[in-house]
Amino acid sequence: MKKLELYLFVIFVTFLLPLFISLKTIDPGLFPRFILLALSAVIIEAIAIVRIVREGLSKNHTVGISSLHYFLGGYLLFTALSLLKAVNSAESIFEILRVALFVIGTIIAFRIINRSEKDRIVVIKTIIMTSLLVALLGIMEYWGVFQLTDCGEFAFPSSTMGNRNLLSSYLFLCSGFVLFGLFRFTGTWYYINIFTCSAIMYVLLLTQTRAVWLACTAGAITALTIVLFTDRYRAIRFIQYKWRRLLPILIIGISLIALHHQFRAKKDTMPAITERVASVADTKISSNRQRLAMWEKTVSMIKENVVLGVGGGNWKIWMPSYGLSGFDIQDMTSIFVRPHNDFLWAFAETGIFGFIFFTGIFFIAVLYAVRILRDSNNRTYGLLSVCLLYIVTGYTVISALDFPKERFSHLVYCGIVLAFCISLNALSIKQIKLPGQISIAYHSIILLISLSALWVGYFRINGDMNMVKALHARKATRWELMINRIDLINTMLYSVDHTSTPVHWYRGVANFSLNRIPDALNDFKKAYEAHPYHIHVLNNLGTCYESLGDHSTAEHYYLKALEISPGFNETLINLAAVYYNMKKYKIAYDTIKRTNASCTDIRRESFLKTIEEKLQSDN
Predict the structure, then answer these.
(1) Residue 74 pLDDT > 80, yes or no?
(2) Which residues neighbour 612 within 8 Å (Cβ) at sequence distance 6 or greater?
(3) For the whole model, what pTM was predicted?
(4) Which CATH code for domain 459-618?
(5) Where do the domains of the chain lie?
């Protein structure tokens, strides 16, 4: 039955999970992969329990524990404790289960990889084949053969990842294993690795993800430096014997750069490679400037919530409360729902202890890889440890500039890397013998957590699919259908959409459009509970109260919206109307004049003219 566990892990987790998408959800990969990972864990743990029962409850079963396991457990613990601070409990519960599945995936991967050298090679070869397939899908998408998802011009090509940056960071995670295969395998598998490495390099050229380029550079420099300091003689001898294996890749890499310079798809709007490289530290570029603004606001969030953070999954809820200054868009039509830095993200959501454990995971992984390189006389282990160093160091760079911890394809492969680091470092593993009944209890706990994740995942994916249909109904102004679709969503477990806009806000818009003001107000109040800093929720609450003649309450909510975004034109116009109705004409005039010159709201000119006429008549 151990072989069955291996095959299930390899097929469903290592191979299928990065390819698994749904075209019926807003995010094609997030919730489908969450469910697949949870389901795989349920099946694998159930098989483990059956195996233990068959072997006999009187038999002891060995469980390997390392320092890395404690850091993983600590991060999960403080993510769970952060629920106490969460404004939006639905998002916090999902984040807790996301981290739980990451930890469970790492535990299962370690259990399987630690069994034999042959099982490790099977996992590595599966990773290589999966990365080749994902890369080829991205290349075919780039050249217009087909398009899996409508990811938009700026996320193209995305393959099965939904975003070009996520595609390149996923392929980086795989690249270390591909490099291992390039040096380790012979015959057909050597040529497969050459082809895979070439495909990955080409995709990294197409996507032009600066964080991944930095990761490749940092990973290579760190790995080579540590190798030279650890065992210079063995490293030089290895290069003397193996440099010919790298020669085809160097030739192909140079050829790809030259060909990409000459031949590009019509849809490709990316700048030249030299321009992209030069833009890495240019703060005049919008994306760089806005990222710095996000980090600054995240640091402020951390300072105010040092111990437990703001709650898992709640960064996107709290972020607008620190103002939208520094962002190009003030009306939240486009909003950041993550800080593009996993370390700041973990600190802000789980507090200082969660941050220490999260950072410690990377530190311990690097320490283990160095220890394997230093102490192992096995050439294969030494080579694999260098590749693991390359991956962990580079992944740390990506985590500091992007959001891989949100994605299950990345979390699973990160867990596999961690499992390799633990497995090859035998001295760090403490073998604990558990009686049969205790072992069953241990696997049952993992099974119950996985079942809970599967249950929550069902409601999350159901909510996402109904949200897609609700958005289509909104576009067609079919308000009753929109309400019906939203009513099918369990808002206790799916309270906000992918833009952090509350589900009940959409229902409120539909009711308001049907002139059901009391119903709309009730919906907007529920939306406010889910996200009290969403300026559209605050704006619409003000509009409902104004429609019901409650000027002072309307003013209160409009002012709260303007505290977050002082340049939000719609609210400024609405607030000017409130002051006009309150006969505060001068304040109304000053308020509407605060709208910026690019305001396209057709009400502005008519309101302004009416207010000016009133001011003139009073004079």
Answers:
(1) yes
(2) 589
(3) 0.94
(4) 1.25.40.10
(5) 2-449, 459-618
